[in-house]
Design goal:
heterodimer, A: 482 residues, alpha+beta, four-stranded parallel beta sheet, 24% strand, B: 310 residues, mainly alpha
Chain lengths: 482, 310
């Protein structure tokens, strides 16, 4: 069978924005890839897919599932067909994200200091105080360079007319960037010459920019500050990412037990005695960071690290307490923040969101459950979510009872259909729903977004949930240069 | 360097050295089992490389395929190659930013190939030598990548400290157990016995070149303990241990360094100023055991002064 047929069998749902096809014609940005695929046989494509799997396995780009005492290595499913973004689309996304991050950073500084936005009534006070991620420990503390969000992974989706929407602001410890880097490396291996021929912008600068920003956060004025990446350890599902980033930046990968605090300074335990640490890029959540301040049961953190932080002896990246800005209920107020702090109209739209803490909105949602998705405000990764159009009656009733126990912890959004992109599945091209997570880096010199990102795919037919914990996969994401 | 990282590098290296030792031992003993007039016993191998009790070992000692299965692919056996490679790889996994990517990929591939179900089937029905050869080559691949790609820094020193400590213990162990098999009666055992012992630690050819007068147990002791040119001898291993530990000398941690350097130096002089005669006078078992004990103590001291981080 030739791949010509492979493309003919691609049936796009007419109510969905497809990244490759528009009105039965290939969009120009995909033409290069389509021509390339048409030269190949199914056998060759199957071999490419096999090679991709082997490369992931061999390099240990895996996460380990432990069952019955032994570890089983799994790879995150990877689809070999790249997702392509045009230069125009990218310029728009880039502008929108920069604007949004600027406002969110100002919001964090404000909410932990003067709280003008609360006093002016833009964001209701009770929204802040009822948010579990609002940390009083951060109040009145000046973070280095006023930067709270050093690394953001903002999720975008597209509805049926192709409009981009912000789905979520991930401002705490966003993950997945190593897949942006590794997926590109895999594409280079499986499709030689395809990338240069299509004028795809490079993503390899990411670790260098991040490293430069980390150096600039150092509280000690020294040419070579000690920078560490704090990981929860090898059992964490993102461990591969932590080692990759540490390796690519040439910084030390540490666990909580490698660090110790003495006289409000953080040291790492080395073979030559303690060595002072200046900057910690942590991939451990706030609540586990310091057992003396937060969860006393935590073994992943370091006792006393918050005091060292507040004394200004160590920089923590991302800042502690960012959860108050990416909370799903606070999300509703981001457009208002942009107007308030920047006096600008938001470039990227929010998905309309109903606060279930508000009685009128709750009643509306309860009578339209089949048209909404309900989410817990402080969960991520697709957990604690209810998709109204597929849920059974009983499930909905049970979920409603849960909501009524603490309505502030829930929001609802109309179901957005998500755009689709071609995926190679068992010798055929099939449209599957995707989202996009570009990674933005903020340093003293401004915000930079590496041209690319992570495209997550809902691999199940018709599914709208792209989270890796819910059967999602990923794609290499191309941003074309002009 | 982080103490935890030094610890993991050291253990990664010890496990990989042990893997190599076990695989070579199995290969040669397999050959020996096919070349025996009487029924071949795997008991010495099981005693050196597993925790089996005398009686447990006796159950499978005469079944070659069962021993291979047990020593290579048995998940329940803590000392199987499968489990040792897994531990080596887990250690490497937690220090991926301190070894080269090539080295990590090589260890990771080794791990995946040893867990391949075909391996276990092959051990039952195919030619075991082919399988052992593939595994040994994976190990050699590891040594090669280590040599060619790793920076000669502190990490490399810890890797080699682990490697030579393990090798020294192994060589002493092999000699000790092989001779205890003969109740330390050096006049017993025929030529094939010595030949396979030497082959199993890659010392056969060197033996032939060094001693032209046929097989003598005293020469075997001399080669394995005292020959400075033999890379698996006790003296060579201790010499390398001393050399790589020397690279850790620095301004910090001075006290601990001096203490451990003294311990290694003591073992070194004990070996260097021995002759076959003096060893036999002291008693081969007592001598070898003494060296093993002292090497273990070096391991404990390293743990205390360099790796302690919890």
């Amino acid at each position: 069978m030739q791949t010509g047929e492979l493309l003919n069998s691609y049936n796009v749902d007419s109510h969905t924005w497809d990244e490759m096809y528009a009105a039965l014609a290939v969009r120009p940005q995909y033409q290069g890839v389509v021509d390339f695929l048409q030269q190949m046989s199914i056998d060759e494509l199957n071999k490419k897919e096999e090679l991709a799997k082997r490369l992931f396995m061999s390099q240990g780009i895996t996460f380990t599932v432990y069952s019955s005492g032994e570890g089983i290595e799994k790879i995150f499913p990877f689809d070999i067909i790249p997702r392509i973004i045009t230069a125009t689309e990218w310029a728009y996304i880039e502008g929108g994200i920069k604007q949004r991050l600027k406002a969110l950073n100002l919001f964090l500084k404000d909410v932990y200091n003067s709280q003008f936005i609360l006093k002016d009534g833009i964001v209701p006070v009770e929204m802040i105080y009822s948010c579990p991620h609002f940390l009083r420990e951060m109040h009145g503390f000046q973070v280095p360079h006023d930067i709270y969000v050093h690394i953001a992974g903002i999720d975008l989706i597209r509805d049926q007319d192709g409009t981009f929407y912000i789905l979520e602001d991930n401002l705490r410890t966003p993950s997945g960037v190593s897949y942006m880097l590794e997926n590109r490396e895999i594409t280079k291996r499986i499709f030689p010459d395809l990338i240069p021929r299509n004028n795809v912008r490079s993503v390899t600068g990411y670790p260098d920019i991040l490293h430069r920003n980390l150096v600039s956060m150092s509280p000690r004025q020294t040419a070579h500050p000690t920078i560490v990446l704090l990981t929860p350890g090898i059992y964490n599902s993102a461990y591969f990412e932590h080692t990759t980033l540490a390796r690519l930046m040439g910084v030390e990968l540490v666990e909580g037990r490698d660090l110790v605090v003495d006289n409000h300074r953080v040291y790492m335990k080395t073979t030559a005695g303690p060595q002072q640490v200046d900057v910690i890029y942590r991939r451990v959540d706030d609540s586990f960071l310091d057992p003396l301040v937060f969860d006393p049961e935590s073994l992943l953190g370091v006792s006393g690290i918050m005091s060292a932080y507040r004394k200004g002896n160590v920089a923590i990246v991302n800042a502690v307490g960012n959860g108050v800005a990416d909370d799903k209920a606070i999300y509703t107020y981001v457009p208002a923040m942009i107007r308030y702090y920047l006096n600008e109209e938001p470039i990227l739209k929010n998905v309309p969101t109903y606060q279930l803490g508000n009685i009128e909105e709750r009643e509306y949602v309860f009578s339209n459950m089949d048209r909404v998705v309900v989410k817990k405000t402080n969960e991520s990764g697709g957990y604690g979510m209810l998709m109204g159009h597929t849920a059974g009656e009983e499930e909905i009733t049970r979920y409603k009872e849960e909501i009524l126990k603490d309505p502030r912890q829930y929001i609802a959004q109309p179901i957005i259909s998500l755009s689709s992109a071609p995926c190679y599945m068992n010798g055929q091209l099939k449209p599957r729903r995707i989202d996009l997570r570009p990674y933005a880096l903020c340093g003293p010199d401004g915000i930079e977004i590496v041209p690319g990102g992570l495209t997550r795919v809902a691999l199940r037919e018709g599914s709208l949930v792209v989270n890796s914990s819910q059967g999602g996969g990923s794609k290499d994401t191309w941003v074309l240069a002009g | 360097m982080l103490s935890r990282v030094a610890d993991s590098l050291y253990w990664m290296s010890r496990y990989m050295e042990r893997t190599d030792g076990i695989l070579r031992m199995l290969k040669i003993n397999y050959a020996s089992s096919q070349d025996d007039t009487q029924e071949f016993s795997w008991k010495p191998v099981l005693r050196i490389f597993s925790y089996l009790e005398e009686e447990e070992a006796a159950v499978i000692a005469n079944q070659t395929r069962a021993v291979l299965q047990f020593m290579i692919a048995d998940k329940e056996n803590a000392t199987s190659v499968l489990n040792i490679v897994t531990r080596g790889r887990e250690n490497a996994r937690s220090v991926q930013d301190h070894i080269t990517k090539e080295l990590w990929v090589c260890l990771n591939d080794f791990y995946h190939s040893i867990r391949d179900g075909n391996l276990s089937r092959g051990l039952q029905y195919d030619d075991p030598v082919s399988i052992l050869d593939v595994l040994i080559r994976q190990g050699v691949h590891y040594y090669g990548i280590m040599d060619i790609t790793m920076a000669r820094g502190e990490g490399f020193a810890f890797i080699n400290i682990g490697k030579y400590l393990e090798r020294g213990v192994q060589s002493a162990d092999i000699l000790d157990i092989k001779f205890s098999d003969l109740q330390f009666d050096l006049s017993r055992a025929d030529i094939t016995y010595w030949k396979y012992l030497l082959l199993s630690i890659s010392g056969y050819e060197l033996y032939l070149k060094t001693y032209r007068s046929g097989f003598d147990a005293r020469n075997v002791v001399e080669l394995i303990v005292l020959n400075e040119e033999f890379p698996r001898s006790v003296i060579y291993s201790v010499d390398r241990l001393q050399r790589y530990f020397g690279k850790l000398k620095g301004d910090r941690n001075k006290e601990a360094w001096k203490k451990i350097d003294f311990m290694i130096g003591k073992i070194m002089s004990r070996v260097r100023y021995s002759t076959v005669e003096s060893i036999l006078e002291e008693g081969l078992h007592a001598y070898l055991n003494g060296i093993k004990e002292e090497l273990y103590e070096v391991g404990i001291a390293l743990n205390q002064h360099y790796f302690a981080y919890i």
